[in-house]
Design goal:
There is one protein chain. The chain is α+β, with helices and mostly antiparallel strands. It contains 4 helices and 5 strands, in the order H-E-H-H-E-E-E-E-H. A 5-stranded mixed beta sheet has the order 1-5-4-3-2. A hairpin with a 3-residue loop joins strand 2 and strand 3. The longest helix is centred in the C-terminal third of the chain and has 20 residues.
Length: 168
């Protein structure tokens, strides 16, 4: 008889505190370290190569790539804003963090809806300073984009579980 075991992703508590912690603490910030599941590393590479989403213009992809790198640095130093109109991050499903790079100007071009970029990451409890990139994706800036977002969040969660079991 064999016993199947499953590894579960356990987030650092409170979720998101590695990304915003320097905003709460006095003194120097702790630098966190980025790690990537392979699929997320590939998606980030696709963004830099202008291949992530054919619905994005080349200019949008370049600007998103720049904004993403700035936001990832802010996460690494614990300076992401999670509240207010200009929030740069959210807690997703009590386990993940969503980073939201923004374009300076978003407008529909040629009848298409704008696309928004999201990076989903985990803060694994077993690694005290790690930020784990799980999924980079775009979604339509509309109510219809919420279905895309739900699918991306589910994929990020599956990747976190696979990472825990060593199969990511």
């Amino acid at each position: 008889m064999s016993v199947l075991s499953r590894a579960y992703f356990i987030p650092h508590e409170p979720v998101g505190s590695r990304c915003y912690g320097a905003l709460l603490a006095d003194g120097g910030a702790v630098l966190h370290e980025w790690d990537y599941v392979e699929a997320a590393r590939s998606e980030i590479g696709d963004l830099h190569a202008n291949n992530l989403d054919p619905a994005l213009t080349e200019a949008e992809q370049k600007e998103y790539a720049s904004q993403l790198m700035l936001l990832m640095h802010k996460a690494k130093t614990g300076q992401v804003r999670f509240v207010g109109r200009d929030a740069e991050g959210n807690i997703v499903g009590r386990t993940l963090v969503e980073l939201k790079p923004r374009l300076p100007q978003v407008r529909a071009a040629f009848g298409r809806r704008p696309r928004l970029l999201r990076l989903y990451l985990g803060e694994p409890a077993i690694h005290p300073r790690k930020l784990l990139a799980l999924r980079l994706a775009t979604k339509e800036d509309s109510a219809a984009g919420l279905d895309e977002q739900d699918a991306d969040i589910a994929e990020a969660k599956a990747r976190a579980e696979a990472w825990c079991s060593g199969t990511a």
